[in-house]
From TrEMBL:
<protein>
    <submittedName>
        <fullName>N-acetylglucosamine-6-phosphate deacetylase</fullName>
        <ecNumber>3.5.1.25</ecNumber>
    </submittedName>
</protein>
<dbReference type="GO" id="GO:0008448">
    <property type="term" value="F:N-acetylglucosamine-6-phosphate deacetylase activity"/>
</dbReference>
<feature type="binding site">
    <location>
        <position position="255"/>
    </location>
    <ligand>
        <name>substrate</name>
    </ligand>
</feature>
<dbReference type="Pfam" id="PF01979">
    <property type="entry name" value="Amidohydro_1"/>
</dbReference>
<feature type="active site" description="Proton donor/acceptor">
    <location>
        <position position="277"/>
    </location>
</feature>
<feature type="binding site">
    <location>
        <position position="199"/>
    </location>
    <ligand>
        <name>Zn(2+)</name>
    </ligand>
</feature>
<dbReference type="InterPro" id="IPR011059">
    <property type="entry name" value="Metal-dep_hydrolase_composite"/>
</dbReference>
<feature type="binding site">
    <location>
        <position position="142"/>
    </location>
    <ligand>
        <name>substrate</name>
    </ligand>
</feature>
<keyword id="KW-0119">Carbohydrate metabolism</keyword>
<dbReference type="GO" id="GO:0006046">
    <property type="term" value="P:N-acetylglucosamine catabolic process"/>
</dbReference>
<keyword id="KW-0479">Metal-binding</keyword>
<dbReference type="InterPro" id="IPR006680">
    <property type="entry name" value="Amidohydro-rel"/>
</dbReference>
<keyword id="KW-0378">Hydrolase</keyword>
<feature type="binding site">
    <location>
        <position position="131"/>
    </location>
    <ligand>
        <name>Zn(2+)</name>
    </ligand>
</feature>
<feature type="binding site">
    <location>
        <begin position="311"/>
        <end position="313"/>
    </location>
    <ligand>
        <name>substrate</name>
    </ligand>
</feature>
<comment type="similarity">
    <text>Belongs to the metallo-dependent hydrolases superfamily. NagA family.</text>
</comment>
<feature type="binding site">
    <location>
        <position position="220"/>
    </location>
    <ligand>
        <name>Zn(2+)</name>
    </ligand>
</feature>
Length: 404
């Protein structure tokens, strides 16, 4: 039996239309119908707000106390159940720098925990994103420079020769200026992996060469990379003008300030992918948490930091990122496209991040305040604020009120 969800406004691609209805069958969108809905049995009519595709986060290190570097089936389920409260329906578990054998072991554990998720439970993982160890010690951020290695043929082989990892490796962040970097970009791209420039001291010329080799994303624009200069553009300067790059942006307004966030959207809004870079501290009260096995401190400030004071990922939720970007003057449709369509496209998921015939039926009903009220994954309701918020508050995870 079909399910029909109707809303006053519906996000189609990069613009709102409405009123409109979305018809769902077998976990997929069958059609989008323009106009006032038929008030028939089986039609769910949303009386206000708007309907969008589910949010897609391609950089998540953990959440609700769970660090993906040490995840098990129970931990993965906890994250999967928490994320829909923030509008996220698909996410890419991310692992930071560690020795290569450890990275492979951690990735296999992430994939095993993902495979153990029961059908119909929460948001769905999309594979794995390796943010390291092929990074520049000159731009480490919170990563341990002593664990970084050059991406030589043997090191890339170590990743691609593991059959389980190779099939699920969706994204690798690396520094292309490191010895062997451009060859590594080519090999990974040939293997079907999205390559992102990040934790990099690359010049503008080297960043452009990475795009020539097949790199298509920049990880957390402006953070842990050679900065924008008026003569030497560095990584962000080239990324902002080279249409081949999708720009990952942590819009907590701490990693990148409000004016610069607005500047990024003015310059390249159609290529921005909002990400959280969330760590285990996300959705949790102030305290000590882990990132890649290392301790980080979340204070009342709301920004996780290493013991030395370096920003260590974020406690951001993706719905709050959308609201933050709207607050700096970006059109809501553009902000939402940056959390749905753009990240889905950059990782090659044409069936996600859009409401169109054949697409996966991941939907979010938002109130006028841009807070998620109801979320569907594969056509099934996985979060309903009316029934779930009280239980989430009782659990004390905080995601229930993540963006309040």
């Amino acid at each position: 039996m079909d399910t029909v969800v109707a809303a006053p406004r519906v996000l189609l691609g990069r613009a709102f239309t409405g009123p409109a209805s979305v018809r769902i069958r077998g976990g997929r969108v069958v059609e989008v119908i323009q106009g006032e809905p038929d008030k028939l049995a089986g039609v769910e009519i949303l009386d206000e707000g708007f309907l969008t595709p589910g949010l897609v986060d391609v950089q998540v290190n953990g959440a609700v106390g769970v660090d993906f570097a040490e995840v098990d089936a129970a931990g993965m389920r906890a994250v999967a159940e928490a994320l829909p409260r923030t509008g996220v329906t698909r996410f890419l578990p991310t692992l930071i720098t560690a020795p290569l054998p450890v990275v492979v072991r951690q990735a296999r554990a992430v994939l095993a925990a993902s495979a153990a998720l029961p059908d119909g439970v929460g948001a769905r993982p999309l594979g794995v994103h390796l943010e390291g160890p092929f990074l520049s010690p000159k731009r480490p951020g919170v990563h341990d420079p002593a664990l970084m290695v050059e991406p030589g043929p043997a090191q890339v082989d170590e990743l691609l020769s593991d059959d389980v990892l190779r099939r699920a490796l969706r994204m690798v962040t690396l520094a292309p200026e490191q010895p062997g970097g451009l060859d590594a970009v080519r090999r990974l791209v040939e293997a079907g992996v999205l390559v992102a420039v990040g934790h990099s001291d690359a010049t503008g010329e080297q960043t452009r060469a990475a795009a020539d080799a097949g790199a298509r994303m920049v990880t957390h624009l402006f953070n842990a990379q050679r900065p924008l200069g008026h003569r030497e553009p560095g990584v962000p300067g080239v990324a902002l003008v080279d249409d081949r790059f999708t720009l990952g942006l942590i819009a907590d307004l701490a990693h990148v300030g409000p004016d610069v966030c607005r500047l990024v959207f003015n310059a390249a809004g159609s290529r921005v992918a909002l990400v959280t870079d969330a760590v285990a501290a996300a959705g949790m009260p102030p305290g000590r948490y882990l990132l890649g096995g290392a301790e980080v401190l979340l204070t009342e400030e709301g920004v996780p930091r290493s013991p030395q004071g370096t920003i260590a990922g974020s406690a951001l939720t993706l719905d709050r990122a959308v609201r933050n970007i709207v607050s700096v003057g970006v059109d809501p449709a553009a902000a939402l496209a940056s959390a749905t369509l753009v990240p889905a496209e950059v990782i090659g998921e044409s069936g996600l991040g859009r409401l169109a015939p054949g697409a996966v039926a991941d939907l979010v009903w938002w109130g006028p305040d841009l807070v998620p009220r109801k979320v569907w994954v594969d056509g099934r309701v996985v979060f309903d604020a009316e029934s779930d918020l009280d239980r989430a508050d009782a659990d004390n995870h905080g995601y229930a009120a993540a963006g309040q």
